[in-house]
Amino acid sequence: MRHNKKLNHLSRTASHRESMMANMACSLIKHKRITTTLPKAKALKKYVEPLITKAKNDTTNSRRVVFSYLKDKHAVSELFGEVINKVGDRPGGYTRIIKLGTRQDDAAPICFIELVDFDENMAKTVKKATRTRRSKKAAPKAEAPAEAAAVAETPAE
């Protein structure tokens, strides 16, 4: 049976994969956005989201559990401080993956992975959804008087 064998091995040994995920998670927590390949980003999302959920409960035990995964005390303190203050009220979905295209030399799919509430550009471009319904026949009639007024205002040569 192949129960619980859904893990992407990423062509690495278990120890290499574990240390790579820990390093990428620390980089994501420190820099809030990293660029990597799509399979690594998907694996990192599965790795880091349970850690952020664990960090919502700020106890000594949860800090020790998160530290056993990350192995970097500065990343742990930033996760329990700044990151949880921003994403603590979310029920899940703390990361976002944005595809960028392919890498030039080996055509590997490249993407951003970022923490959701830390992107200032996405937060500033919030628009209100305003819809107006017009018939297609009404639009030319509305423009016609404006053009006639513009023609009437210009002096004749």
List the defining traits of the structure above:
alpha+beta; 3 strands; 157 residues; 3-stranded antiparallel beta sheet
Characterize the structure shown:
Strands 1-3-2 form a three-stranded antiparallel sheet. The protein is of the alpha+beta class and 157 residues long. The longest helix has 18 residues, at 14-31. Helix content is 53%, strand content 13%. The protein has six helices and three strands. The protein is globular and about 75 Å long. The mean pLDDT is 86. Helix 1 packs across helix 2 (38-55), helix 1 packs across helix 4 (73-87) and helix 3 crosses helix 4 (73-87).
Summary of the model, kept short:
With 157 residues, this protein is an alpha+beta fold.
Rounded to the nearest angstrom, the distance between the terminal CA atoms is: 89 Å
Task: Please state roughly what percent of the residues sit in beta strands, choosing from under 5%, 5-15%, 15-25%, 25-35%, 35-45% or over 45%.
Answer: 5-15%
- As residue ranges, the low-confidence spans are none
**Helix segment tally:** 6
Tally the beta strands.
3
Oligomer: single chain
User: What's the helix-strand series?
Assistant: HEHHHEEHH
Structure classification: alpha+beta
